[in-house]
């Protein structure tokens, strides 16, 4: 019963002990309490009760009872890190038990072998146990044994065998009331889905398992470990690190299993390494190595040593000793049949290359490269990365480019299984090294055109296809409605000066639930077969328009000037310096949004000149006088490009990629689309431009006051030709897809826009921070603007800084005047800036707005 209803089992066992039971009954009661404490509580209490259970079994003179208790005690001792004692208890248990009991003891010893990473021994004990359990028609223990065997198969990379065992076990579980075991089976299926490369299904199953455990009131440390692994593969390493550290703290608080603590530390070390925190990774991995060694868990210790070596290499500690250590780890992992062996060989080869040891590097990289032909996507990515480094060491630019192309194709296919735009964006981080290798090779061997192709190959890929539209999930829709209500109440309370911690906690809970459900969505689109074509770009640009794509190689900005039938390359400044200057400009614009800051204007203009030198360099002299499209890297998305002197007076638009600009350029406006004007609450001017625009566009749909509610706004925006939204904007750096515009019934967030069948052809966001984006993955951007572009929007006007509401009104009216005259958004915005007063306030307001896309 302890794995059907743990709380009830614990209560009954304590009640039985209070009733002065016979030795056999007391033995069972102490064993149940020991199991509960071992798996869900304090391990010291578990060992106390299990020793009492064994004493009672000895007094009862029952060999089978004693064997059963010895098996439970053996598991507890191993989880406490006392491996030698635990295995000795199993030896005595196997010797004492007979028939059916002995098979149960063998199953539990197989579980311990799995915990220790001794997979061959685990499979052997399960092989001996399963026929006996089946013959005894012991459904529960047979299902447990099949689930364990499947888990061992997964550890060895045998996904198909694991799936077969999980399926057989699941059929047996369906005939029982073992709710905890059923939750464990769902968790295990999640792990299998992850091993086969299906991240959305893995996340859904792990969340379902967590809900089941929560109903039983049991801790979920193994689930925490597995979810960390999935989160890291999905590009969510910071969340994995937070989950691992929180679970470790909780485990320490209850005196839980030492084995699980070591595994959580290993997960935290991996996550810290992926976040770029090498020192935290070293500390966590070193402690995990010591714990695993003390627990005699060589398989796990070797995996922890791999992470430790990776972290030391990331911290710049490359040495011949580190190459030898990585090679030794690779050899051990290969002898275990561990799927991580190629990763260790790649690491040894990479460190050897850094030291100039080309022969050693080739030997290790050749081993790692074998994994490129089969296995899950990330394993094949490892193989192609090794192959690319081999080609680079051999001086073969063609070989580098071919390996990078094949590796990124694998990652493309993997990304397209992900339905959520956030997961697609973050997954690109796994291709960053291949993209950088290809860019360096193309710069050396192929000239500016090839560099442009490879710059585009891994830039804004999430915008190439729309995210999978969220299903009509009633729980998701009700969660969004509840989120809006809570957020609206919290905002009202803040404005009245009332405390809001309870509302904020509930808002965060709802956000986690919504985000979790969107991550369960599987991708539907195939990989983008419409590869970027330089010739097509140049044809569309013609002789009048120039596209300036900024690529970054080894920290230096490379300017690719496209137009008039050719691509030219210029070298500009350092990206880090440009980022610092852009932050200074943003601070200056924030000051200029308030009257009385005119003295800051020369400082901001000087910063604009420095930005031009760093970002355009000598290319600025070759821009001519026509329209310019700027394609910046993700880390420069906050640059107010109209502030740069050579761009200030011209028609200027911004695009996340050249491919995105081409798609926008070729997007046709809706034949019968309407105009929609939306005015949200709380604006200083009350959205004063909206009534005047309503008079200008006689047939426009106007949504204001109580009519400006999220469901109605989304309904009218779908398929509109032009939308103008005057509403307070909030950018969420911590969770960019919850960046929002304030409506009458609460915030409209990026998740809402992703439900549109077709977003407006043109959209104007006349509020602060609507063009702010979060740079994630390799070179991806998440936020309001990038949510609209793949959904059918060809042009957006938005703001990347706080602005003065009163100064926005005349700018917006002048912008619409240009649109009435048939101008594009970029042309109308250029003319609108020129029409404003020349004071610092109005100039800063104009610079803060940018036109995105090509409409």
UniProtKB/TrEMBL annotation:
Name of the protein in question: CHAT domain-containing protein
Upper classification of the organism: Bacteria, Bacillati, Actinomycetota, Actinomycetes, Kitasatosporales
Domain CHAT residue range list: 606-836
Signal peptide: none
Domain of life according to the entry: Bacteria
Record-linked Gene3D superfamilies: Tetratricopeptide repeat domain (1.25.40.10)
InterPro entries with a match to the protein in the record: CHAT_dom (IPR024983), TPR-like_helical_dom_sf (IPR011990), TPR_rpt (IPR019734)
């Amino acid at each position: 019963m302890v794995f059907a209803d743990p709380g009830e089992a614990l209560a009954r066992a304590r009640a039985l002990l209070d009733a002065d039971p016979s030795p056999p009954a007391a033995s069972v009661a102490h064993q149940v309490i020991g199991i509960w404490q071992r798996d869900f509580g304090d391990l010291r209490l578990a060992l106390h009760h299990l020793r009492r259970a064994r004493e009672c079994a000895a007094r009862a003179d029952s060999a089978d009872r004693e064997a059963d208790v010895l098996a439970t005690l053996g598991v507890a001792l191993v989880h406490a890190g006392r491996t030698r004692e635990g295995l000795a208890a199993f030896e005595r248990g196997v010797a004492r038990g007979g028939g059916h009991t002995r098979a149960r003891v063998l199953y539990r010893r197989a579980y311990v072998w799995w915990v220790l990473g001794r997979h061959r021994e685990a499979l052997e004990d399960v092989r001996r146990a399963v026929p006996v359990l089946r013959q005894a028609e012991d459904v529960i223990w047979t299902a447990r044994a099949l689930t364990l065997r499947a888990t061992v198969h997964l550890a060895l990379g045998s996904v198909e065998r694991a799936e077969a065992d999980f399926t057989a076990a699941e059929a047996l579980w369906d005939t029982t009331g073992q709710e905890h075991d059923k939750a464990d089976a769902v968790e295990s299926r999640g792990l299998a889905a992850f091993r086969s490369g299906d991240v959305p299904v893995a996340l859904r199953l792990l969340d379902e398992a967590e809900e089941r455990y929560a109903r039983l009131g049991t801790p979920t440390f193994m689930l925490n470990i597995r979810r960390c692994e999935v989160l890291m593969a999905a590009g969510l390493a910071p969340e994995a690190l937070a989950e691992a550290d929180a679970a470790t703290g909780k485990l320490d608080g209850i005196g839980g299993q030492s084995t699980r603590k070591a595994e959580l530390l290993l997960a935290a070390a991996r996550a810290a390494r992926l976040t770029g925190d090498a020192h935290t990774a070293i500390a966590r991995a070193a402690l995990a190595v010591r714990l695993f060694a003390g627990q005699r868990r060589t398989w796990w210790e070797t995996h922890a040593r791999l992470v430790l070596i990776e972290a030391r290499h990331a911290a710049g500690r490359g040495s011949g000793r580190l190459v030898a250590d990585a090679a030794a780890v690779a050899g051990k992992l290969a002898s275990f049949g561990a799927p991580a062996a190629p990763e260790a060989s790649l690491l040894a080869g990479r460190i050897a290359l850094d030291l100039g040891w080309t022969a050693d590097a080739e030997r290790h990289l050749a081993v790692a490269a074998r994994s490129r032909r089969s296995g899950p996507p990330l394993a094949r990515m490892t193989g192609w990365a090794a192959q690319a480094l081999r080609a680079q060491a051999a001086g073969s630019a063609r070989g580098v480019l071919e390996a990078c192309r094949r590796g990124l194709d694998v990652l493309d296919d993997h990304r397209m299984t992900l339905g959520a735009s956030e997961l697609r964006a973050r997954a690109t981080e796994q291709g960053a090294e291949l993209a950088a290798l290809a860019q360096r090779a193309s710069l050396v061997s192929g000239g500016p055109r090839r560099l442009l192709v490879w710059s585009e190959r891994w830039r804004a890929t999430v915008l190439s296809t729309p995210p999978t539209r969220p299903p009509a999930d009633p729980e998701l829709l009700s969660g969004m409605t509840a989120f809006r209500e809570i957020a609206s109440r919290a905002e009202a309370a803040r404005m009245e000066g009332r405390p809001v911690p309870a509302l904020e906690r509930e808002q965060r809970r709802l956000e986690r639930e919504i985000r979790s459900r969107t991550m369960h969505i599987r991708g539907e689109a195939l990989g983008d077969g419409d590869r970027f074509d330089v010739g097509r770009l140049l044809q569309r640009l013609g002789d009048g328009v120039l596209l300036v794509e900024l690529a970054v190689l080894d920290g230096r900005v490379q300017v690719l000037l496209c137009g008039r039938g050719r691509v030219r390359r210029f070298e500009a400044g350092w990206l880090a310096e440009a980022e610092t200057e852009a932050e200074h400009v943003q601070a200056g614009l924030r000051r200029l949004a308030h009257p009385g800051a005119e003295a800051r204007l020369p400082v901001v203009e000087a910063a604009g000149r420095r930005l031009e030198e760093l970002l355009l360099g000598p290319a600025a002299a070759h821009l001519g006088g026509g329209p310019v499209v700027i394609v910046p890297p993700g880390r420069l998305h906050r640059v107010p490009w109209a502030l740069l002197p050579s761009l200030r007076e011209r028609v200027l638009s911004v695009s996340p990629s050249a491919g995105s600009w081409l798609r926008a350029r070729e997007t046709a406006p809706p034949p019968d689309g309407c105009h929609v004007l939306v005015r949200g609450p709380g604006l200083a001017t009350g959205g004063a431009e909206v009534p005047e625009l309503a008079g200008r566009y006689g047939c426009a749909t106007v949504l204001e006051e109580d009519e400006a509610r999220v469901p109605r706004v989304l309904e009218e925006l779908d398929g509109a030709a032009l939308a103008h939204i005057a509403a307070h904007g909030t950018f969420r750096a911590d969770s960019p897809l919850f960046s929002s515009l304030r409506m009458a019934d609460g915030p409209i967030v990026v998740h809402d826009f992703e439900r549109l069948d077709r977003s407006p052809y043109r959209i104007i966001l006349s509020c602060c921070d609507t063009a702010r984006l979060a740079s994630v993955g390799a070179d991806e951007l998440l936020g309001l603007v990038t949510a609209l572009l793949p959904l059918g929007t060809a042009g957006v006007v938005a703001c990347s800084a706080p602005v003065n509401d009163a100064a926005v009104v005349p700018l917006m009216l002048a912008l619409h005047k240009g649109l009435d005259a048939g101008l594009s958004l970029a042309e109308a915005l250029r003319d609108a800036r020129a029409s404003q007063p020349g004071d610092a306030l109005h100039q800063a307001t104009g610079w803060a707005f940018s036109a995105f896309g090509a409409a």
